[in-house]
Design goal:
heterodimer; A: alpha+beta; Beta-Lactamase; 2 domains; 8 helices; elongated; B: alpha/beta; Rossmann fold; two-stranded antiparallel sheet; 5 helices; 13 strands; about 30% strand
């Protein structure tokens, strides 16, 4: 029955949009916040280079989520195999540590440095903990200014642990948001004929500025709807009135759908 | 000569003397004392460690169970080698056993080191150096049981404290193990003991120069580098007094640390 097919498509469409949008709305601002906090904390630690690594899968692998400094772009999304290097140890052990002279030998960091062209000389690494779990590692590399550098001190290790607490909350929120986004992406890649149209339509609109505007409206509506029956009724009336007004002006929807 | 006394006072208020500890342990080398390092493996070819590692094992998952096979994988992270280097420098004739639990694919963090600890207790290594820990509450009870088993088997577990806001296990279990936090002291013999605090022992852990995989050395800071200092001191004590129980070892450490503190006060 064509009517039920449409209803079915509508439901699927709504599900896909909601899932993708919740994820997108949250992930990017969180990534920015993580980088901003990382920059601020690095400044207090007297370091220009810092990175946040998060768990990648269930077997102790790590992935660079955010980085600041000279080679930040190259580090982002780079992977660290389970148990490798200082970050791997910190993740598995939950123990913070400082290495004052990393460079000079065939270690995992030599591999990273080779890939990025950077020279890691000293490092402070501390675990990111959230709800009894170590969810990643926070690293500060080298000091600001020219070497020789003073090693990171025990007091700085304590300070880094505090920064790690704040960052861990953001990273945890990021991971929840990313779950939504991944779910949306998975829905989009489902091998279903019914979603072909949805995919084509969404791929055209999801990156537009108008789309963001629509999502802001959606959030506003959600907030209004949560206030109570009277607010919901008034909201519906207002929107109907806006639609009628829009019809008389013969303008199309800003999404062009 | 150190007089090792009971930590608790008796009903009459006087302290009970347990035994006298002569100073011979200070020149001991840890000969014949087995020390297990549950960590990331050990680079057995490092000049400072070469010939001191009696056996290396590595965790592997087999049909949902953790088994330990002889290992030639060395050290994937550097930490185990660093700890072995510290122990070798203080107790050069201690017999090291590497139990590699980090980097074992398919193993959750807590499960890996729990299995490593169980393996070490089963093999009755006298001293067990544990720089790892967990904050996951589900491991509280199994770890507690395992540490009690270690205590009853005469294995002395030395764990690195975690100086983060949450308590980590097992370092907060004060009864059945020795937990260590870093200090800026550089002389390994001058460790401290803070009776009544959750983490009782303090040992050098700031800018410690020690072995690193590949034959080199690193300057390292962390509680996990304070821990092997105490593991090595215990190996020295056990060489000269092999019959000491875990409780007596802890009492001895307390008494020696008191002397260290008094000596420092008169300096």
């Amino acid at each position: 029955m064509p009517g039920s097919e449409n209803t079915d498509l509508d439901a699927k469409l709504r599900r896909v949009i909601e899932t993708i949008d919740i994820g997108n709305l949250l992930v990017e601002p969180l990534t920015r916040s993580i980088e901003q906090l990382l920059s601020a904390s690095a400044a207090t630690m007297g370091s220009n280079e810092a990175s946040v690594l998060i768990r990648d899968g269930d077997e102790g692998d790590l992935r660079f989520l955010a980085a600041i400094g000279e080679v930040a772009d190259q580090l982002r999304d780079m992977k660290v195999p389970a148990g490798k290097g200082i970050a791997g140890f910190v993740l598995s052990s939950g123990q913070p540590m400082v290495v004052s002279d990393v460079g000079g030998e065939e270690t995992f960091y030599a591999e990273v440095d080779k890939a990025t062209g950077y020279s890691t000389q000293m490092m402070l690494a501390t675990p990111l903990r959230h709800n009894d779990e170590v969810i990643g590692v926070l690293e500060y590399i080298n000091r600001s200014g020219p070497p020789p550098w003073q090693p990171f001190t025990p007091a700085e290790m304590d300070k880094a642990a505090l920064c790690a607490d704040a960052l861990a909350s953001l990273v945890s929120a990021y991971e929840s948001a990313k779950l939504f986004r991944d779910l949306g992406d998975r829905l989009m890649s489902e091998d279903s004929d019914a979603l072909v149209d949805v995919r084509a339509w969404l791929s055209g609109v999801r990156d537009t500025a108008e789309h963001k505007e629509m999502m802001e409206l959606a959030l506003l509506l959600r907030e209004l709807a949560s206030r109570g029956n009277a607010e919901r009724a008034m909201c519906r009336e207002l929107l109907d009135a806006v639609l009628r007004f829009s019809d008389t002006r013969s303008e199309t929807s800003f999404l062009g759908y | 000569m150190t007089t090792v006394t009971g930590i608790e006072e008796t009903r009459t208020g006087s302290q009970m003397t347990f035994f006298q500890l002569d100073d011979e342990w200070r020149s001991a080398t840890g000969r014949g004392v087995s020390v297990a390092v549950i960590d990331s493996g050990i680079d057995t070819a490092h000049p400072e460690i070469n010939g001191r590692v009696k056996a290396s094992f590595e965790a592997r998952v087999d049909n949902k169970k953790v088994v330990f096979d002889p290992s030639e994988a060395g050290d994937s992270a550097g930490h185990g080698t660093a700890c072995a280097g510290i122990i070798s420098r203080i107790a050069p004739e201690a017999e090291l056993y590497s139990i590699k639990v980090l980097g074992a694919g398919g193993l959750g963090d807590g499960h890996a080191f729990l299995a490593g600890l169980e393996w070490a207790v089963k093999n009755r290594y006298r001293v067990i150096n544990l720089s790892l820990g967990t904050t996951k509450p589900q491991f509280f009870s199994p770890l507690h049981d395992l540490l009690d088993r270690a205590y009853q088997a005469g294995c002395i577990v030395v764990a690195a404290a975690n100086n983060l806001p949450q308590p980590s296990f097992p370092s907060v279990f004060s009864s059945s193990l020795i937990s260590v936090i870093k200090s800026e002291e550089t002389d390994p013999m001058k460790f401290g003991f803070h009776y009544g605090q959750v983490i009782e022992l303090t040992a050098p852990g700031v800018n410690v120069r020690t072995a690193w995989p590949g034959g080199g050395y690193r300057n390292l800071t962390g509680n996990s580098f304070a821990c092997p200092h105490i593991a090595a001191i215990i190996a020295l004590l056990l060489e000269k007094h092999p019959g000491l129980t875990p409780f007596q070892v802890k009492s001895a450490l307390y008494a020696i640390a008191q002397e260290n503190q008094e000596a420092k006060a008169t300096d």
